[in-house]
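The records we work with from here on pair a chain with its fold. These numbers are not coordinates but entries in a learned vocabulary of local backbone shapes. To see the layout at work, look at the sequence and tokens printed below.
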Amino acid sequence: MVKNSGTQICASQIRYLNFFKPIRIKENYLGFPEHITINNQIMYVSLEDRWRIDDEWWRVNPISRMYFECILIDGRNITVFKDLINGGWFQQRY
């Protein structure tokens, strides 16, 4: 059992799991990320991995996404996805 630390948790310390936000991405001819704009700075990427998720097809708003694990030019990793239904790009993890 974990001992109670006695510290209070406030709303500013809580983070959503799998939170995503819109991001600007230039695609190459295959539809893969070529460069990503972060803080008004264009960063070219190399792709590490990609995968597709199709879920909740029975609901009014199904999920269909193509995910990309990218390495930025400065060495940081970022996970982004393209919403295959609406066409927008989103940053999943940074």
